[in-house]
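Hey, resending since the last one bounced:
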Amino acid sequence: MTGHSKTTFDSIYWPDSELKSIVVDYNAITITLVMSDRRELLVTATGFIGFTVVGFWDETIIANAEFHRTHSAITRHLESIRARLGSRPPESGSIERNAFEWYALLIHLSDGATIEIVAATLSASVV
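The structure tokens again:
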């Protein structure tokens, strides 16, 4: 398939997908997954304020994923920023980040490790 087709997070079948890559730049985190039907899925988090990987060893198979509008991860990353920059941090070079609205995406790998992303926008497209 050429190009990209947008998809919703509810329509993604996460279990048994494989993590292919994670690319982080100033304003976006792009995760490439190979789904069980061998198609590739690009998940993009723009205006991110937090990215953690907890307990990664060598497993790249996804058990499941969660998408949240409110979550302790959002609170934790905001508290870290506010502790360093004040209750209302100055504007950044990211339009998305400056909106001060957040989503949490937690990707759980089959060995129990978790990839945690907090960002202003999340999108997914099949390649």
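Residues 1-5 have pLDDT under 50 and may be disordered.

Sorry for the duplicate.
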